[in-house]
């Protein structure tokens, strides 16, 4: 099983391997981005290739971006200064590449939120907490692959952090969903489309659409993606 995994998740190996259409780089310690994390990441899409590097220099994201294969760069918080310098020097890849800071410490995460609001080299960086259950982490990682910006609830507070999220965060304790609405929203947060959700729950697609409409109304957000963000925030909060 380990050999199969290594064939899918290419690290700093020089052995030849088949090229996949999208590449995700994890930059940081193998203690943070361990085999289990990489296994979960590569399972999110059939067209993903995953690599881990110790630092941004060895990862060489600029070159990879020029080859039009780089999709996501997830950087451990200990490399925040290195990432900021790369972005400030305007040497960061352009186009569709998404930059993500993986964190446990709230200080660098809040700095990213501050720069998203007021400007700075890290203003385009997204946030991915590493201190959440693996299932929640996988759902958050999936949102990153979609190009979404997710703000964990622990960073949401009145003022700048809330404004940086793009819309006010609904109060987690004030919104009551029915059991069925919660089941639907859980599947939405896991990337399920209406047809798949309907099949899983034994409902019609029309009924699923009605549930999603009610969820969006109750939560007070604009769309299903924002509702998924809200749900993941609540799950992460309850998991701590």
Automatic annotation (TrEMBL):
Signal peptide: none annotated. The keyword S-adenosyl-L-methionine does not apply. InterPro entries: Sig_transdc_resp-reg_C-effctor, Tscrpt_reg_LuxR_C, WalR-like, WH-like_DNA-bd_sf. It comes from the Bacteria. Residues 170-235 form the HTH luxR-type domain. PROSITE patterns: HTH_LUXR_1, HTH_LUXR_2. PANTHER family: TWO-COMPONENT RESPONSE REGULATOR (PTHR43214). GO terms for molecular function: DNA binding. This is Regulatory LuxR family protein. SMART domains: HTH_LUXR. GO terms for biological process: regulation of DNA-templated transcription. Pfam families: GerE. Keywords: DNA-binding. CDD domains: LuxR_C_like (cd06170).
């Amino acid at each position: 099983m380990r050999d199969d995994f290594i064939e899918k998740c290419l690290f700093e190996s020089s052995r030849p391997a088949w090229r996949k259409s999208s590449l995700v780089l994890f930059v940081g310690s193998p203690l943070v981005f361990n085999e289990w994390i990489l296994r979960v990441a590569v399972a999110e899409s059939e067209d993903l290739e995953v690599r881990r590097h110790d630092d941004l220099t060895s990862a060489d994201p600029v070159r990879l971006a020029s080859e039009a294969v780089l999709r996501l760069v997830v950087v451990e918080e200990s490399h925040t200064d290195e990432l900021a310098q790369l972005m400030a020097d305007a040497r960061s890849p352009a186009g569709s590449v998404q930059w993500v800071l993986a964190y446990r410490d709230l200080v660098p995460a809040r700095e990213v939120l501050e720069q998203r609001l007021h400007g700075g080299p890290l203003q385009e960086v997204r946030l991915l907490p590493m201190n959440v259950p693996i299932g929640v982490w996988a759902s958050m990682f999936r949102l990153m692959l979609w190009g979404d910006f997710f703000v964990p609830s622990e960073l949401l507070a009145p003022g700048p952090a809330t404004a940086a999220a793009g819309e006010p965060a609904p109060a987690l304790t004030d919104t009551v969903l029915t059991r069925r609405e919660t089941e639907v929203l859980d599947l939405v947060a896991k990337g399920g489309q209406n047809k798949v959700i309907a099949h899983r729950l034994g409902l019609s697609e029309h009924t699923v659409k009605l549930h999603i409409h009610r969820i969006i109304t109750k939560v007070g957000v604009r769309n299903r993606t924002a509702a998924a963000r809200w749900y993941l925030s609540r799950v992460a909060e309850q998991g701590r």
